[in-house]
Amino acid sequence: xxxxxxxxxxxxxxxxxxxxxxxxxxxxxxxxxxxxxxxxxxxxxxxxxxxxxxxxxxxxxxxxxxxxxxxxxxxxxxxxxxxxxxxxxxxxxxxxxxxxxxxxxxxxxxxxxxxxxxxxxxxxxxxxxxxxxxxxxxxxxxxxxxxxxxxxxxxxxxxxxxxxxxxxxxxxxxxxxxxxxxxxxxxxxxxx
Length: 192
Description:
Blueprint: E1 15-16, E2 20-21, H1 22-48, H2 52-78, H3 82-89, H4 95-103, H5 105-135, H6 141-172, H7 174-190
Antiparallel strand pairs: 1-2
């Protein structure tokens, strides 16, 4: 019983005081672990026998992947579902999925920004370390330090600058982005 109102307290499944969803936290942590291990393994395997140009392309792909998911995460939290209701009533493909994205913005944002975005950042850092090792294998000390600083600085500036542009885009075009993602989800769920 609630001491203030005399009404029975509602039980919240898998939540502690403060509205923390323990089940979601455990799930996202486990998913993060397996995604991180998988992406790390795949990037290491991909970088084993490739040239420097291909390694840089892989690095840029990881950076781009993180930026794209950051945009989706921001758009999901900035968007309103109002526009999608009339579309769903007209059976526009992707509208139902867009409503789901907006209604689950906290989880979608957490997954896109924290899980995929952070893992992409970690993997791009590891990938740049492998590239630096390849490029500085027989290099003099000063050259290796300068090359390491240049690559690290470029990766950081591309990631941070890309995410800054992405956040602006995610906020200003949130409904268009959410609808695009909704259409992609509808397409892939239809293909099953």
